[in-house]
Inverse folding.
C-alpha cells in the first residue's frame, strides 16, 4: 500500500471487467498501486489541461525535432547574412569614417578593398579589360559562322557557313594541316 494513502478507506468503482484487467496490467507495468496510478493519471490531465477526448497531434519528440531543425536553419540564415552582408558593410562604413584600425583593414574582401580605395581617392572605377587578341577575334568569327541543323531524320549536326578559301586561310594562319 502507498504511504500517502495508508489512513484512507477504500472505495469501490464499478468498471467493466476488461477495463479493470487492462488497468491492473497498466499499474503493474509502471510499478504503482491502482490508487497511485489513477491519481497520477488524473494529476497529469489536470496539470497539462488535457482532456481524454482531445487528440494530442504529433508526438512531442517529432515536434521537438521539427522545431530544432527550424531553429538551426534560422541560425544558419542569420550567420550567412552576417558574414555576407553585415560585416563587409560595417567594415566599409568604418573605413570611410576612418574608425577602422590598420590591422582590421586587411580583413576586408579584395573587392571591397578596391571599392574602398576608389571611393577614398574619388576616382572612377576602371575595369581591367585585356585587349582582344587576333586569335580570339578569329575564333569568335568562326563560332559566329556555325549553325545547328536539325534534319527531319537523323541526328542534329553543325554546319559552318564559310567559304573554303576562308577555311584554308585560317588553317595556314594557325598551322593546322590534315594528313
Amino acid at each position: 500500500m502507498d504511504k500517502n494513502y495508508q489512513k484512507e478507506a477504500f472505495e469501490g468503482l464499478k468498471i467493466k471487467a476488461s477495463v479493470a484487467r487492462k488497468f491492473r496490467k497498466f499499474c503493474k507495468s509502471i510499478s504503482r498501486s491502482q490508487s497511485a496510478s489513477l491519481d497520477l493519471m488524473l494529476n497529469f490531465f489536470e496539470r497539462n489541461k488535457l482532456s481524454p477526448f482531445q487528440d494530442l497531434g504529433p508526438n512531442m519528440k517529432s515536434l521537438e525535432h521539427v522545431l530544432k531543425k527550424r531553429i538551426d536553419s534560422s541560425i544558419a540564415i542569420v550567420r550567412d547574412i552576417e558574414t555576407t552582408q553585415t560585416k563587409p558593410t560595417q567594415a566599409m562604413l568604418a573605413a570611410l569614417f576612418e574608425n577602422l584600425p590598420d590591422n582590421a583593414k586587411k580583413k576586408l574582401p579584395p573587392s571591397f578593398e578596391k571599392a574602398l580605395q576608389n571611393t577614398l581617392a574619388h576616382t572612377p572605377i576602371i575595369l581591367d579589360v585585356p585587349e582582344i587578341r587576333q586569335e580570339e577575334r578569329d575564333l569568335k568569327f568562326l563560332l559566329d559562322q556555325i549553325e545547328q541543323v536539325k534534319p527531319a531524320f537523323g541526328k542534329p549536326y553543325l554546319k559552318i557557313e564559310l567559304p573554303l578559301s576562308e577555311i584554308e586561310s585560317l588553317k595556314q594562319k594557325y598551322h593546322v594541316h590534315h594528313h
About this structure: Residues 60-121 form one domain. Residues 66 and 100 are 42 Å apart (CA to CA). The radius of gyration is 40 Å.
